[in-house]
Design brief:
Elements (H helix, E strand, L loop, with lengths): L3 E6 L21 E2 L2 E2 H11 L4 E6 L4 H7 L1 H4 L3 E6 L6 H7 L9 E6 L14 H6 L4 E7 L7 E5 L5 E6 L8 E9 L1
Parallel strand pairs: 1-4, 1-6, 4-5
Antiparallel strand pairs: 2-3, 6-10, 7-10, 8-9
Amino acid sequence: MSAIKCIIAAGGLGTRLQGFRDNQSTKILLKVNSKSMIIQQLEQLISWGLRDFVIITNPTFDALIRNETSQIKEKYNIDYAIQSEQLGISHALKKAEAYVNDGDQVVFVLGDNFFGNNPIQNINFEEVSSSDKNSIIFTKEVSNPEEFGVAITDSKNKVIQIEEKPKEPKGNSAVVGLYIFD
């Protein structure tokens, strides 16, 4: 089986939470229950069995994020890529391209998203790479889809569009910030 590379999008500036609890850095360095969000994210992903990571950072907070994750880096493979401009999720994923080899599977997660359970525990990665599915976009049905990115699917449940915070949602499947790509 190919390697599984986990890419964590943590390149945002986190300006909405600057000043909260005296935080002057990006939100993923904000401590919750005495641990930064990036450490909690890595610990959760490690508990899912992931071992090989690329953390997308930004020039302003790159050194702080590297320092914060240095103890985990001693035990697991962590590479870093810098997203110089915050141009969205796809742009962040593109920054990790140099660290992904042909044939690798990619688990892509937004750095500030956490999950109550392991949503990838029943994923057969070999089946994903050998089928015509090629990707999985995780969603959750919500009662307030206008507050989220919403996946629009066709009759075969294939995502054909994602609408970001639509005023008139065409569905209620919120994209949760977790993806698998071949």
